[in-house]
Amino acid sequence: MARFMRLDVTNTLLDTGILPLFYNGEVETAIELVSACVRGGARAIEFTNRGEMAYPVFTELVKHFAKADPSVILGVGSIIDAPTAALFLASGANFIVGPSFNPEISRLCNRRKVLYLPGCSTENEISAAEELGAEICKIFPGESAGGPGFISAVMAPCPWHRLLPTGGVDATEASIGEWIKAGAAAVGLGSKLISGQAVKDKDYDGITAKTAQCVGWVQSARGGSVFSGVEHIGLYAHKSTPEALSAWYEQTFDLKRKEGNSSFFVSGAGAGRIEFPKAVAEAPVHLAVRVTNFEAAAAKLQAKGISLKDVNLKPDAKSGYLDLADPEGNLVHLLWLPKR
Question: Which residues of the chain have pLDDT under 50?
Fold first, then answer.
Protein backbone atom coordinates (compact mmCIF):
# COMPACT_ATOMS: atom_id res chain seq x y z
CA MET A 1 0.00 0.00 0.00
CA ALA A 2 1.29 3.46 -0.89
CA ARG A 3 2.47 5.62 1.99
CA PHE A 4 2.37 8.88 0.00
CA MET A 5 -0.73 10.40 -1.56
CA ARG A 6 -0.85 11.50 -5.18
CA LEU A 7 -0.51 15.22 -4.44
CA ASP A 8 2.43 14.64 -2.09
CA VAL A 9 4.35 12.83 -4.83
CA THR A 10 3.34 15.40 -7.45
CA ASN A 11 4.56 18.30 -5.33
CA THR A 12 7.81 16.50 -4.55
CA LEU A 13 8.57 15.94 -8.24
CA LEU A 14 7.69 19.52 -9.10
CA ASP A 15 9.87 20.76 -6.25
CA THR A 16 13.04 18.77 -6.87
CA GLY A 17 12.63 18.69 -10.65
CA ILE A 18 14.31 15.34 -11.27
CA LEU A 19 13.22 11.70 -11.27
CA PRO A 20 16.14 9.23 -11.21
CA LEU A 21 15.24 5.83 -12.68
CA PHE A 22 17.06 2.52 -12.87
CA TYR A 23 16.81 -1.26 -12.65
CA ASN A 24 19.17 -3.57 -10.81
CA GLY A 25 18.59 -7.19 -9.90
CA GLU A 26 20.66 -7.11 -6.70
CA VAL A 27 18.92 -5.88 -3.56
CA GLU A 28 22.01 -4.45 -1.87
CA THR A 29 23.11 -2.63 -5.01
CA ALA A 30 19.62 -1.23 -5.53
CA ILE A 31 19.59 0.06 -1.94
CA GLU A 32 22.95 1.77 -2.49
CA LEU A 33 21.75 3.39 -5.71
CA VAL A 34 18.57 4.74 -4.15
CA SER A 35 20.55 6.02 -1.16
CA ALA A 36 23.07 7.72 -3.44
CA CYS A 37 20.33 9.60 -5.31
CA VAL A 38 18.61 10.61 -2.08
CA ARG A 39 21.86 11.97 -0.62
CA GLY A 40 22.14 14.10 -3.75
CA GLY A 41 18.73 15.68 -3.23
CA ALA A 42 16.31 13.45 -5.15
CA ARG A 43 13.35 12.33 -3.06
CA ALA A 44 11.31 10.28 -5.52
CA ILE A 45 13.02 7.35 -7.25
CA GLU A 46 11.65 5.19 -10.06
CA PHE A 47 12.62 1.51 -10.03
CA THR A 48 11.90 0.15 -13.48
CA ASN A 49 10.15 -3.16 -14.11
CA ARG A 50 12.71 -4.35 -16.63
CA GLY A 51 14.00 -7.64 -15.27
CA GLU A 52 12.93 -10.92 -13.70
CA MET A 53 14.00 -9.70 -10.26
CA ALA A 54 12.09 -6.42 -10.43
CA TYR A 55 9.23 -7.45 -8.15
CA PRO A 56 11.23 -9.12 -5.34
CA VAL A 57 13.91 -6.42 -5.38
CA PHE A 58 11.32 -3.63 -5.27
CA THR A 59 9.55 -5.33 -2.37
CA GLU A 60 12.81 -5.39 -0.41
CA LEU A 61 13.49 -1.75 -1.27
CA VAL A 62 10.13 -0.76 0.18
CA LYS A 63 10.79 -2.72 3.37
CA HIS A 64 14.27 -1.28 3.77
CA PHE A 65 13.44 2.40 3.30
CA ALA A 66 10.26 2.21 5.37
CA LYS A 67 12.64 1.80 8.31
CA ALA A 68 15.92 3.35 7.14
CA ASP A 69 14.44 6.56 5.66
CA PRO A 70 10.63 6.83 5.54
CA SER A 71 10.87 10.09 3.57
CA VAL A 72 12.06 8.27 0.43
CA ILE A 73 9.30 7.99 -2.19
CA LEU A 74 9.65 4.79 -4.22
CA GLY A 75 7.70 4.16 -7.41
CA VAL A 76 7.75 1.68 -10.28
CA GLY A 77 8.30 2.32 -13.98
CA SER A 78 7.87 0.44 -17.27
CA ILE A 79 4.32 -0.60 -16.29
CA ILE A 80 2.06 -1.28 -19.28
CA ASP A 81 -1.01 -3.02 -17.81
CA ALA A 82 -3.32 -2.66 -14.82
CA PRO A 83 -2.70 -6.11 -13.24
CA THR A 84 1.03 -5.43 -13.01
CA ALA A 85 0.34 -1.96 -11.62
CA ALA A 86 -1.96 -3.49 -8.99
CA LEU A 87 0.73 -6.00 -8.01
CA PHE A 88 3.30 -3.28 -7.36
CA LEU A 89 0.76 -1.03 -5.64
CA ALA A 90 0.04 -3.85 -3.21
CA SER A 91 3.79 -4.01 -2.53
CA GLY A 92 4.04 -0.34 -1.62
CA ALA A 93 4.62 1.59 -4.86
CA ASN A 94 3.89 5.28 -4.32
CA PHE A 95 3.59 6.08 -8.01
CA ILE A 96 3.35 4.24 -11.32
CA VAL A 97 5.15 5.22 -14.53
CA GLY A 98 4.48 3.79 -17.97
CA PRO A 99 6.09 4.04 -21.41
CA SER A 100 2.58 4.43 -22.83
CA PHE A 101 -0.85 5.63 -21.72
CA ASN A 102 -3.24 2.97 -20.39
CA PRO A 103 -6.70 4.19 -19.27
CA GLU A 104 -7.14 1.10 -17.05
CA ILE A 105 -4.04 2.05 -15.07
CA SER A 106 -5.39 5.60 -14.75
CA ARG A 107 -8.63 4.35 -13.23
CA LEU A 108 -6.82 1.97 -10.90
CA CYS A 109 -4.44 4.66 -9.63
CA ASN A 110 -7.21 7.25 -9.29
CA ARG A 111 -9.17 4.81 -7.15
CA ARG A 112 -6.17 4.46 -4.85
CA LYS A 113 -5.18 8.16 -4.92
CA VAL A 114 -1.80 7.18 -6.41
CA LEU A 115 0.10 9.26 -8.97
CA TYR A 116 0.24 7.77 -12.48
CA LEU A 117 2.69 9.19 -15.00
CA PRO A 118 1.59 7.85 -18.40
CA GLY A 119 3.97 7.86 -21.34
CA CYS A 120 2.79 10.24 -24.07
CA SER A 121 4.32 11.49 -27.30
CA THR A 122 1.51 13.59 -28.82
CA GLU A 123 -0.77 16.38 -27.68
CA ASN A 124 -3.79 14.10 -28.13
CA GLU A 125 -2.29 11.51 -25.77
CA ILE A 126 -1.44 14.17 -23.19
CA SER A 127 -4.97 15.60 -23.28
CA ALA A 128 -6.57 12.15 -23.07
CA ALA A 129 -4.39 11.26 -20.08
CA GLU A 130 -5.24 14.51 -18.33
CA GLU A 131 -8.96 13.86 -18.84
CA LEU A 132 -8.47 10.71 -16.77
CA GLY A 133 -6.65 12.54 -13.99
CA ALA A 134 -2.97 12.57 -14.96
CA GLU A 135 -1.21 15.29 -12.95
CA ILE A 136 2.10 14.81 -14.77
CA CYS A 137 2.63 13.18 -18.16
CA LYS A 138 5.86 11.46 -19.06
CA ILE A 139 7.08 12.48 -22.52
CA PHE A 140 8.67 9.35 -23.92
CA PRO A 141 10.88 8.97 -25.75
CA GLY A 142 11.64 12.63 -25.18
CA GLU A 143 14.09 13.19 -28.00
CA SER A 144 12.10 11.20 -30.58
CA ALA A 145 8.90 13.01 -29.61
CA GLY A 146 10.49 16.27 -30.69
CA GLY A 147 12.87 17.24 -27.91
CA PRO A 148 12.57 20.54 -26.03
CA GLY A 149 10.89 22.04 -29.09
CA PHE A 150 7.95 19.67 -28.63
CA ILE A 151 7.59 20.73 -25.00
CA SER A 152 7.48 24.43 -25.82
CA ALA A 153 5.12 23.82 -28.75
CA VAL A 154 2.45 21.98 -26.75
CA MET A 155 2.85 24.25 -23.72
CA ALA A 156 2.04 27.33 -25.79
CA PRO A 157 -1.69 26.54 -26.24
CA CYS A 158 -1.91 24.39 -23.09
CA PRO A 159 0.20 26.05 -20.36
CA TRP A 160 -1.44 23.89 -17.69
CA HIS A 161 0.40 20.78 -18.89
CA ARG A 162 2.94 19.28 -16.50
CA LEU A 163 5.42 17.33 -18.57
CA LEU A 164 8.35 15.14 -17.55
CA PRO A 165 10.56 14.14 -20.49
CA THR A 166 12.56 10.92 -20.25
CA GLY A 167 14.90 9.68 -22.96
CA GLY A 168 17.10 12.30 -24.54
CA VAL A 169 17.82 14.17 -21.30
CA ASP A 170 21.53 14.28 -20.49
CA ALA A 171 22.88 14.85 -16.99
CA THR A 172 24.47 18.14 -18.06
CA GLU A 173 23.65 21.75 -17.30
CA ALA A 174 23.06 22.51 -20.98
CA SER A 175 20.62 19.64 -21.56
CA ILE A 176 18.67 20.02 -18.33
CA GLY A 177 18.53 23.78 -18.76
CA GLU A 178 17.17 23.46 -22.30
CA TRP A 179 14.37 21.10 -21.25
CA ILE A 180 13.37 23.12 -18.17
CA LYS A 181 13.43 26.44 -20.01
CA ALA A 182 11.26 24.89 -22.73
CA GLY A 183 8.60 24.28 -20.08
CA ALA A 184 9.29 20.82 -18.65
CA ALA A 185 8.07 20.54 -15.07
CA ALA A 186 10.79 18.00 -14.27
CA VAL A 187 13.09 15.57 -16.07
CA GLY A 188 13.64 11.83 -15.87
CA LEU A 189 17.24 10.64 -15.76
CA GLY A 190 18.27 7.03 -16.27
CA SER A 191 21.64 5.78 -17.49
CA LYS A 192 22.89 9.33 -18.02
CA LEU A 193 22.76 9.73 -14.24
CA ILE A 194 23.21 6.14 -13.04
CA SER A 195 25.63 4.78 -15.61
CA GLY A 196 26.52 1.14 -15.94
CA GLN A 197 30.17 1.98 -15.31
CA ALA A 198 29.35 3.83 -12.09
CA VAL A 199 27.33 0.85 -10.89
CA LYS A 200 30.13 -1.55 -11.83
CA ASP A 201 32.70 0.61 -10.00
CA LYS A 202 30.35 1.12 -7.04
CA ASP A 203 30.90 4.84 -7.45
CA TYR A 204 27.96 5.80 -5.27
CA ASP A 205 29.56 9.07 -4.18
CA GLY A 206 29.89 10.01 -7.85
CA ILE A 207 26.19 9.34 -8.40
CA THR A 208 25.38 11.46 -5.34
CA ALA A 209 27.49 14.33 -6.64
CA LYS A 210 25.94 14.17 -10.11
CA THR A 211 22.42 14.05 -8.64
CA ALA A 212 23.16 17.15 -6.58
CA GLN A 213 24.42 18.92 -9.68
CA CYS A 214 21.26 18.02 -11.61
CA VAL A 215 19.00 19.31 -8.83
CA GLY A 216 20.98 22.55 -8.78
CA TRP A 217 20.82 22.91 -12.56
CA VAL A 218 17.03 22.54 -12.48
CA GLN A 219 16.73 25.30 -9.89
CA SER A 220 19.07 27.57 -11.86
CA ALA A 221 17.16 26.97 -15.10
CA ARG A 222 13.96 27.93 -13.31
CA GLY A 223 15.53 31.28 -12.50
CA GLY A 224 15.89 30.61 -8.80
CA SER A 225 18.86 31.78 -6.78
CA VAL A 226 21.43 29.24 -5.63
CA PHE A 227 21.14 30.94 -2.22
CA SER A 228 17.87 29.56 -0.88
CA GLY A 229 17.74 31.14 2.59
CA VAL A 230 18.91 30.78 6.17
CA GLU A 231 19.44 27.15 7.18
CA HIS A 232 20.44 27.79 10.78
CA ILE A 233 21.95 30.27 13.22
CA GLY A 234 24.85 29.23 15.42
CA LEU A 235 25.00 30.58 18.98
CA TYR A 236 28.30 30.37 20.86
CA ALA A 237 28.21 29.78 24.62
CA HIS A 238 30.41 32.51 26.11
CA LYS A 239 28.83 32.61 29.58
CA SER A 240 27.53 29.03 29.90
CA THR A 241 28.11 25.74 28.08
CA PRO A 242 26.77 24.55 24.71
CA GLU A 243 24.91 21.75 26.49
CA ALA A 244 23.27 24.09 29.01
CA LEU A 245 22.43 26.73 26.41
CA SER A 246 20.87 24.23 24.00
CA ALA A 247 18.96 22.60 26.87
CA TRP A 248 17.46 25.98 27.78
CA TYR A 249 16.06 26.44 24.27
CA GLU A 250 14.85 22.86 24.21
CA GLN A 251 12.97 23.15 27.49
CA THR A 252 11.72 26.71 27.11
CA PHE A 253 10.22 26.29 23.65
CA ASP A 254 9.44 22.54 23.63
CA LEU A 255 11.91 21.94 20.83
CA LYS A 256 13.89 18.82 20.02
CA ARG A 257 17.61 18.67 20.72
CA LYS A 258 20.15 16.47 18.95
CA GLU A 259 23.83 16.15 19.80
CA GLY A 260 26.44 15.74 17.09
CA ASN A 261 30.19 15.37 17.14
CA SER A 262 30.90 19.10 17.15
CA SER A 263 27.65 20.75 18.23
CA PHE A 264 24.09 20.52 19.51
CA PHE A 265 21.16 21.30 17.21
CA VAL A 266 17.72 22.42 18.37
CA SER A 267 14.74 22.47 16.01
CA GLY A 268 10.96 22.28 15.80
CA ALA A 269 8.31 21.54 13.20
CA GLY A 270 8.99 24.74 11.29
CA ALA A 271 11.90 25.75 9.11
CA GLY A 272 15.25 26.72 10.56
CA ARG A 273 17.47 25.35 13.30
CA ILE A 274 19.74 26.68 16.04
CA GLU A 275 23.24 25.29 16.37
CA PHE A 276 25.30 25.42 19.55
CA PRO A 277 28.93 24.67 18.60
CA LYS A 278 31.08 22.94 21.19
CA ALA A 279 34.07 25.01 20.08
CA VAL A 280 33.89 28.66 21.13
CA ALA A 281 34.55 31.45 18.64
CA GLU A 282 35.06 35.15 19.24
CA ALA A 283 32.04 36.03 17.12
CA PRO A 284 28.69 36.15 18.93
CA VAL A 285 26.91 34.08 16.27
CA HIS A 286 27.40 32.47 12.90
CA LEU A 287 24.89 32.20 10.10
CA ALA A 288 24.49 29.27 7.70
CA VAL A 289 23.09 30.15 4.27
CA ARG A 290 21.62 27.15 2.47
CA VAL A 291 22.50 26.71 -1.20
CA THR A 292 21.05 24.51 -3.93
CA ASN A 293 24.39 24.10 -5.69
CA PHE A 294 27.54 24.52 -3.62
CA GLU A 295 29.94 24.93 -6.52
CA ALA A 296 27.73 27.48 -8.28
CA ALA A 297 27.27 29.44 -5.04
CA ALA A 298 31.03 29.51 -4.44
CA ALA A 299 31.56 30.78 -7.99
CA LYS A 300 29.02 33.58 -7.50
CA LEU A 301 30.79 34.72 -4.33
CA GLN A 302 34.17 34.48 -6.04
CA ALA A 303 32.88 36.82 -8.74
CA LYS A 304 32.17 39.32 -5.95
CA GLY A 305 35.68 38.95 -4.58
CA ILE A 306 34.68 36.68 -1.68
CA SER A 307 36.51 33.40 -1.18
CA LEU A 308 35.68 30.39 0.98
CA LYS A 309 37.84 28.83 3.68
CA ASP A 310 37.60 25.69 5.81
CA VAL A 311 35.74 24.00 2.96
CA ASN A 312 34.40 20.57 3.89
CA LEU A 313 32.99 18.43 1.08
CA LYS A 314 31.10 15.21 1.82
CA PRO A 315 28.57 13.25 -0.25
CA ASP A 316 25.74 14.28 2.09
CA ALA A 317 26.92 17.76 3.14
CA LYS A 318 29.09 20.57 1.79
CA SER A 319 30.13 23.66 3.72
CA GLY A 320 32.61 26.51 3.65
CA TYR A 321 33.05 29.77 5.58
CA LEU A 322 33.29 33.12 3.86
CA ASP A 323 36.78 34.57 4.31
CA LEU A 324 35.30 37.72 5.81
CA ALA A 325 32.71 38.41 8.50
CA ASP A 326 29.55 40.46 8.03
CA PRO A 327 29.58 44.17 9.09
CA GLU A 328 28.76 43.16 12.68
CA GLY A 329 31.59 40.67 12.86
CA ASN A 330 29.40 37.58 12.57
CA LEU A 331 30.71 34.53 10.74
CA VAL A 332 28.85 33.24 7.67
CA HIS A 333 29.12 29.90 5.94
CA LEU A 334 27.46 28.19 3.01
CA LEU A 335 25.73 24.87 3.54
CA TRP A 336 24.49 22.39 0.98
CA LEU A 337 22.34 19.49 2.17
CA PRO A 338 20.18 17.05 0.19
CA LYS A 339 16.78 18.56 -0.43
CA ARG A 340 14.36 16.90 1.97
Answer: none
